[in-house]
Write the structure tokens for this entry.
Amino acid sequence: MEKLFGSDDRFLIQRLRSELETAGIPYLMKNEYVAGAVGELPWQDVQQQVWLLDESWSQQAGKLVHTLQEDDRNSGEKTDWQCQQCGEANEGEFAICWQCQAPKPESDCPQCSPLPTP
Ligand SMILES: [Zn+2]
């Protein structure tokens, strides 16, 4: 057996499991039911772990993990943005300004999306 991935992020683990199931990769969970013990044990001992039953899947499963981690990182980049029309601050998940319905600028980077010159 080979340890594929470990995390205390249950969402990430859950997504990885469904990816593995979709791909037909056999795996085993460790520490799935110890959440109640958090605080009593070092975190390494309570994080959920996904183990590969068959190491021949190692490369393919590793790619799945990598893709998931990239996704996870990208979804964390939804930073707040400022409306270029009215200057209202909006949360990153909104695609339009809640105040004036102006669309979110394409880039979150202020340097890349200068205010329109009148
Ligand atoms: Zn606005």
